[in-house]
């Protein structure tokens, strides 16, 4: 019941939030990127933040999953695990893009059914707290960090057949976690959009 309420509140918030076009503004330190086209639910959006790259291994520092298109706002909606406020939440794609100097959209090489099931899994996690244990990962957890959520969504949606962690075992660089870079590097994902404003 709590998850359904979280989804409903998130959708109502987005519908009442007004136009996200201002998120493309370069004022206030934001970045500008051309809006991606040809997107489908289940695509993965990924970004690079120069400050975050100091502590997050690899070039890419944040990732979310594209859930659905909000025709009232004229923008795609992204599910992401965010650390402040510390929860799984919904944001507009334009807001996501404006936070990062370099962005990409990845598509997972799988069926549309698996992609939609991954979206549904991610939406069911709305409101869960942020997972600060970056060195580990689990599919069915009580909390998620950004790349753990996206990885878990595809693992759950495919019964473990689609593992988008390029280094699924333990490594010195990523330990037992899954970093945004590993999702970008995985052979099951491919780039459909890339832009850098740096």
* Number of DSSP-assigned strands: 6
Please give the alpha-carbon distance between the first and last residues: 43 Å
Strand content: 15-25%
Number of helices: 5
Helix-strand makeup class = alpha+beta
Portion in helices: 25-40%
Q: Strands of the biggest beta sheet: in what spatial order?
A: 4-3-2-1-5-6
Provide the gyration radius in Å.
15 Å
The CATH topology name reads endopeptidase fold (from Nostoc punctiforme)
Please identify, by name, the CATH architecture: Alpha-Beta Complex
Global shape: globular
CATH superfamily: endopeptidase domain like (from Nostoc punctiforme)
- Low-confidence stretches are 1-29
Largest sheet: 6 strands, antiparallel
Mean pLDDT: 85
Structure description:
By secondary structure, the chain is of the alpha+beta class. The chain has one domain: endopeptidase fold (from Nostoc punctiforme). It contains five helices and six strands. A six-stranded antiparallel β-sheet has the order 4-3-2-1-5-6. The longest helix has 15 residues. It is globular and about 40 Å long. The N and C termini lie far apart (43 Å). The N terminus is likely disordered.
């Amino acid at each position: 019941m709590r998850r359904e309420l979280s989804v409903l509140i998130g959708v109502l918030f987005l519908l009442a939030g007004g136009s996200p076009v201002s998120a493309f503004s370069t004022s206030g330190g934001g970045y500008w990127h051309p809006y991606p086209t040809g997107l489908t639910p289940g695509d993965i959006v990924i970004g690079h933040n120069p400050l975050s790259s100091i502590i997050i291994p690899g070039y890419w520092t944040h990732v979310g999953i594209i859930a659905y298109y909000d025709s009232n706002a004229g923008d795609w909606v992204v599910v992401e695990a965010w650390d402040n406020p510390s929860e799984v939440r919904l944001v507009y794609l334009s807001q996501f893009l404006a936070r990062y100097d370099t962005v990409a959209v990845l598509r997972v090489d799988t069926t549309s059914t698996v992609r939609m099931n991954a979206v549904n899994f991610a939406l069911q996690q709305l409101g869960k707290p942020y997972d600060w244990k970056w060195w580990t990962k689990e599919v069915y957890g009580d909390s998620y960090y950004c790349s753990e959520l996206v990885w878990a969504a595809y693992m759950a949606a495919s019964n473990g057949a689609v593992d988008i962690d390029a280094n699924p075992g333990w490594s010195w660089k990523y330990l037992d976690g899954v970093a945004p870079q590993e999702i970008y590097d995985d052979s099951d994902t491919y780039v459909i959009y890339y832009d850098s404003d740096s």
